[in-house]
Amino acid sequence: MKFARTWLYSIVLAFAANASFAQLPSDLIFKSGMDHPLEGPFTPEEAARFLQQATFGPKLADIELLTRIGYNAWFDQQFAATRSEHLPFIDGLLLGGDTNVFQGARIESWWRNVLGGNDQLRQRMAFSLSQIFVVSDQSGALEGLPTSLAHYYDMLSRNAFGSYRTLLSEATLHPSMGRYLSMHKNRKPDAVLNIQPDQNYAREIMQLFSIGLVRLNTDGTRMLSAGQPIPTYNTDTIRGFAHVFTGWNYSTCVTPTGPNQTWHWDWCGTRAQADPESQDYRLHRGWREPMRPFGEGSVYEAVYHSSVEGPMASPTGAKQLLIYPGVSPANGVLPSGGTARANMNIALDNVANHPNVGPFISRLLIQRFVTSSPSPAYIGRVASIFNNNGAGVRGDLRAVVRAILMDTEARRPTAVNRGKLREPLLRLSQLYRAFDAASRVPDRFNEYTDYWMAQAPLSSPTVFNYYLPNYQLPGEITTLGLFSPEFQITTDTYITRIVNEMGGKVFWQFQGNASLPPVNQWNPTLVNINRDLSFANNAEVLVSRYSLLMMGGTMSTAMSNLLVAHVRDMPNNNDEDRRRRVQDVLWLIMNSPEYVVEK
């Protein structure tokens, strides 16, 4: 444990240390001739560092391509790339008769796309959004629904470059979200049965998915009144939204045909009205289609939705929504009456147009892509693009992600506190992509990372994500007023587990290892160490290659000299010796503070 604590302290110091990047000389534009892309990147190191932020890890071919075509063409390619999906893989297993399709199949599908998908920016954006619009298989409501969670992730990737307002609507009405935050089958008040609308989703859509707890300036700084933060909402607002979010159920629920058949609300199976042998039944249609108002368009809509006008409605009055300058509806008050769908649309418009959304969402995305402590100026620049993409469009996520990655604080950072701790999943995905990892059974990836790195896709322990965006590690980071979200899961236990597991993947799980158990007993993901044996004769070249591939060329001279000296001291008589050289350098880099703190 002493080693783990020392390692953690080293990371903290590296995070706060002043490790400057060399500035680009003014004549670099002419370095490779006039045909070089004018917008950059101008060096392979710049390209590799960009790809560390924008993808699940650069490959050598990716670095070469980006250096050759430039950022603009790369963005065009990524925005146009065919979208990788997760659900078809799981559906294929189900329709093929596989009876053991659980969350492991969903995680397999995730790794297939992370490692092999060409739409890296979209998938990275989806992963970032999954940490904002959180649902999780750790919830008892979802642990048995891998198809619904896979569909939810596909929904995030589909909206990754689209409209925030559309994303907010599709996340709200997805059955996974409905079950996770208990909006599914939420009911209007009933004094006789002592029922009040569930407030869970009403709170989280505001606190976590849109505006946060206090009013913000465009640059993300807090608005103050008499020296105190201004709350964004109060209990009346929560109650108002809770009433809006009533009356929604699975899309497969059938409308009752008589006054005594409201039991369909309480047991409305996701496979209702389907032949048990049909494809509709086996693919769980209700778990992957947007929820809809129960009894929509009939008098039965008023049975469960609050304040629907009709013979079965109760006059519960108007609903208080958010209040802000220029708010709609007037004074943030949704009048009584209206249908469940109409009221939902008005309420979501009310949320999406709040002035907090731009800075709030921009900061969260910057933290996931670039740096844990973005400056107010950085947040303000991105939030301004969120508010208006240049063509009068609000919430254009394509413009937002581009603004985040191309901002001067992302491409040419100068602040001493720039960067962030690499997420554990991104450390593993970078290793696998950098070394052309493959499984012995084609396209089947058995990765259960939640045990040894406290992180797996759609597997957060709470709706607040794996870590809080405002988490500050006690000590120097807190003293300096910085933020360090990923440190919240960087404990002594997980540091030790990650170091050991990474060692196993580098020293044991490599292609060509004859000591591996038979494939029918174990199907690990194997890295291609042998690819780089030809570089192992030259310590300087080997270390420089991995500085580029793993660290975007940011390795310090001191670290480089230490690794070169270590490699030179190792035997170099045969391929076995050279493989050990490659493995040692890789493992030492991946567990070094300079690597783990991404600058």
Characterization of this structure:
With 599 residues, the chain is mainly α. The protein has a domain at 161-352. The protein has 27 helices and ten strands. Strands 1-2 form a two-stranded antiparallel sheet. The protein is globular, with a radius of gyration of 26 Å. The protein starts with a helix and ends with a strand. Residues 1-6, 8-34, 269-278 and 310-315 have low confidence and may be disordered.
Summarize the structure.
This protein has 27 helices and 10 strands.
Which range does the strand content fall in? under 5%
Helix content: 40-55%
The shape, in one word, is globular
β-strand number? 10
Helix and strand composition category: mainly alpha
Strands in their spatial order, largest beta sheet: 1-2
* CA(first)-CA(last) distance: 27 Å
Contiguous uncertain segments of 5+ residues: 1-6, 8-34, 269-278, 310-315
Average per-residue pLDDT, rounded, comes to 89
Radius of gyration: 26 Å
Count of DSSP-assigned helices = 27
Oligomer: single chain
Largest sheet: 2 strands, antiparallel
List descriptors.
two-stranded antiparallel ribbon, single chain, 27 helices, 45% helix, mainly alpha, 599 residues, disordered N terminus
Which helices and strands, and how do they pair?
Elements lengths: L1 H15 L27 H11 L5 H21 L6 H9 L7 H14 L3 H11 L15 H13 L5 H9 L2 H6 L19 H8 L16 E2 L2 E2 L5 H10 L3 E2 L13 H4 L12 H4 L9 E2 L7 H4 L14 E2 L12 E2 L5 H13 L4 H13 L6 H12 L9 H10 L1 H4 L8 E2 L2 H11 L3 E2 L10 H4 L22 H4 L12 H16 L17 E2 L12 H13 L5 H12 L6 H16 L2 H4 E2 L1
Antiparallel strand pairs: 1-2, 3-4, 5-6, 7-10, 8-9
Helix pairs in contact: 1-23, 2-3, 2-24, 5-7, 6-7, 8-15, 10-11, 16-17, 16-18, 17-18, 23-26, 24-25, 24-26
